[in-house]
Amino acid sequence: MQVHFKRIASELSIATTQVATTVDLLDQGGTVPFISRYRKEMTGSLDEVQIAAIRDRILQLRDLDKRKEAILKSLKEQDKLTDELEKQVNEAETMARLEDIYLPYKPKRRTKATIAREKGLEPLAKLIYEQTNLDPYAKAADFVDAEKQVEDIEQALQGARDIMAEWINEDQEVRARMRRFFQEKAVFKARVYPGKEEEAQKYRDYFEWEEPVAKAPSHRVLAMRRGESEMFLMLDTVPSEEEAIELLDRKIITGRSASSEQVKLAIRDGYKRLLQPSMETELRMVSKKKADEEAIDVFAKNLKELLMTAPLGSKNVMAIDPGFRTGCKLVCLDKQGKLLHYEAIFPNEPMKQTTKAGATVKHLVEKFNIEAIAIGNGTAGRETETFVNALGLPKSVTVVMVNESGASIYSASEIARNEFPNEDITVRGSVSIGRRLMDPLAELVKIDPKSIGVGQYQHDVDQNALKHSLDDVVMSCVNAVGVEVNTASEQLLTYVAGLGPQLAKNIVEYRNQNGPFKNREAIKKVARLGDKAYEQAAGFLRIRGASNPLDESAVHPESYAIVNQMAKDLKCSVTDLIQKEELRKQIDLKKYITDQIGLPTLKDILAELAKPGRDPREQFEAFSFMEGVNSMEDLRTGMKLPGIVTNVTNFGAFVDIGVHQDGLVHISHLSDTFVSNPAEVVSVQQRVQVTVLEVDINRKRISLSMKGEAKPQVKKSDKPKPKAEPKKESASDMADKLAALKGKFGR
Asked: Could you point out which of 71, 245, 399, 718 has its C-alpha 20 to 30 Å from the C-alpha of 266?
């Protein structure tokens, strides 16, 4: 295990002791957010990204160890295990290297080489493979044996070549060289299936397509593979056959004898029949994994930005799910998101009951003291927004368009049915739109991230790796923000460090039966919530209005005694410490250092006392699309419009400009300067100015440009931190960095 610690430490450029301590904490049930936030002294202030990388890497190395054990056991059972072979197995650093070592001994079905050995042709193969001046034809005559079904010289030589081909395929050095050659020189070659040109139009870019595997971006790799799986494209992943065989010849051929000519024939057969299919399969797996990681990384970054969208906060909200023929579904919610009222209005075509609908909205705004109106951005969204804005509502009422992606998924889900068993899906969808405005994070955790619409090819990537990454992002965001335990949904509580689905359910049940929690200590009364779960979760749970003000903060209960001592030393209360900066300035942190708690945690405590329970998300600002531009027909080339980024991909960014169809800013139009990674320029939910380049109404495509626009303001969470003070990074920064974790060492 110590070897693994040293290896990980070297890869991450940190101390071995940091790795060892972190692995120990993880093995004890520690979560990434908890270890990062509350165990800085033990880990040397490692952040969430580093801790997650250690977690993933140690799991990968442990899987490698398990495979080594299985291989050594198999070799021992075959009585093939030598000291040298055991040493090779134990020193193998990758799974590919390990499998290459094991390949010659791996139990296999009867092969051509197996049959040739059964016919007694292995001695002939050995003689020929030495490539001496031996006459292979003359020697092969000695192996002709009708009883062994070796009818003539050619059969004998063919059998010998079959054996040599297998040797070549199983040679460790040959495979290592060929693996590198494929990685460097292989080319994706896509072709449309003859006769499927019409039905495969969405893949027409790949009808005659070639590009190096090493340079192919993830979205094209996944697109070609999807076309192949749907039987529209034929896809090969191979280098030049001539170059590959030439490489093998240089490695294996040692002379120009007749024997060497037989070996050359074996090389060609071995490459075409064994090596090439094996290497292609392996390369396809590697390129798919790399494409998956890039796509998952894009998804994770987008999801993080979406989850950390600025919340409106606790306001009385009216939410409208717009529509034409079926009308607009309207609901009113209180400051906690509780459903107070719902009904349908018909302000749009074809019924056009504008006066009646307007009177209803005005009445409800007054009756429920509505402070904001959330309108879904789907069908009839802009028309409904225009209708509401024309009503002359008080200026204090904010009208906001809300991205409703995934709302229909939520409304039909079991979660929604449990929340609103007596309401239909239209009401549930409207409630979701309203709550998204109030607190996007709390509402979006109820929806499968794959349905939110911020990824690329999310259904094509490794689903386990995707879930692993997205769970990390959601957990990081939830714990960065903190959770009010008395109002949080079961789904939100699920992502609190140390809880999970069952304990989240138990908390809600306890809350329903016993009323709100009065303090953090009371959380221990929840069924099956033991000391470990409490340790992990307590610091991330908030209790608004608790008698102990620290229960509203991110200060962990295990540190309450220190804060109390600080207050005692200054002859004041904890509340005084929170409210008065001059008191906090008098605190000498060095006085409170113990064997368990050092300056990193003490600094965190002091920062938390200054702003207890501070939400790391940015302040909410209302956004409006350009008036009069409601559909694609209203767009004109050269028009400049405000928009909101809805999705960032490797090839550009999609922007909502309020016409029911997102436009694409291709990577080449994101900036006046060269851009290699769109995520470096834009992020999901960012407000941008775009110029219309082209509108294709028939294909529902809008091309946009951000060239010539002022550079977007860098968000606080994106500003680089001073290298000399890495410990000052906030929980929000950790969420940002974790979203960018691509599984550097594999998932």
From this structure: 71
